[in-house]
Write a structure and sequence with these properties.
The chain has 263 residues and is α/β, with parallel strands linked by helices. The chain has nine helices and twelve strands.
């Protein structure tokens, strides 16, 4: 019998509100090492807010978030950054840093206040760029990249941070079809090889179906279903989540989600 997987991220009775507007409520979940966990839900369901609470960009109104058994409220900002790295949906480049400069910024939590990146930091950044196949553009200005390339650089920056928890907000939002599957495949591979805990928000349930180990459906700030993709991403669950007919097909190896016409 398989032993229970230890939890790296534990969220207990989480609640968050912007003023009087409740965004998250009574949310409890746990994610273990070498696990890709997908949060699926419609716009304004609270997906991105949940990630920002785990990053401690936002402070929950109620509940507790633990990473490796440590309450985030007891950790410094640097300690949180050493444990959790994030990739946002988008990032507007302000200065013409090189790609390598941007990736090296992921080393900041490991450097002193006035310290400059050393040879080890450069080696870590080069390895991260190599993992994502962007080492050839390491000297290019960040301001001259396509949207998909920008996203790849942000992934590399997060890898260079060497955090155990990787938080991805809509990781395929700016990627073409090829790079979408390249990145999602790399995420799964890295989770296994590096023992990472990956928590990602996705709009397309197909990404969760094909690449996640477990899925949480979020609606109106609450977790309405939790389990494997096959258990959770059903026609009934998705139809209720999005308010439209959705058919889930299978060819024996993977499922394809087909949307009907909204009512």
């Amino acid at each position: 019998m398989d032993q229970p997987r230890p939890s790296v991220v534990e969220i207990q009775d989480l609640g968050f509100a912007y003023g009087e507007a409740i965004v998250l409520h009574d949310l409890t979940m746990a994610v273990g090492p070498r696990e890709v966990f997908a949060i699926v839900g419609p716009n304004a369901a609270g997906k991105t807010t949940l990630l920002r609470c785990i990053e401690r960009i936002l402070t929950p109104r109620t509940g507790t978030i633990l990473i490796d058994g440590r309450d985030l409220k007891t950790l410094s900002a640097r300690d949180v950054s050493r444990r959790a790295a994030s990739v946002p949906q988008s990032h507007a480049p302000a200065f013409p840093y090189t790609v390598q400069d941007i990736v090296l910024m992921g080393r900041n939590p490991h450097l002193g206040a006035a310290a400059q990146p050393g040879p080890h930091d450069v080696a870590v950044a080069q390895e991260a760029m190599g993992e994502l196949g962007i080492r050839a553009i390491s000297a290019r200005p960040y301001t001259q990249l396509s949207g998909g390339q920008l996203q790849m650089v942000l992934f590399a920056r997060a890898l260079a941070q060497e955090a155990q928890v990787l938080l991805l907000d809509e990781p395929t939002a700016h990627l073409d079809f090829r790079n979408r599957h390249l990145v999602m495949g790399r995420i799964r591979d890295l989770a296994v090889r590096r023992g990472l805990t990956v928590i990602m928000t996705v709009h397309d349930p197909n990404d969760a179906m094909q690449y996640a180990d477990r899925v949480g459906l979020v609606s109106d700030g609450g977790l309405v279903a939790l389990g494997t993709p096959q258990e959770v991403l059903t026609s009934d669950n998705l139809g209720q989540l999005y308010g439209m007919p959705i058919e889930v097909l299978t060819d024996g190896r993977r499922r394809v989600i087909v949307a009907g016409t909204p009512s």
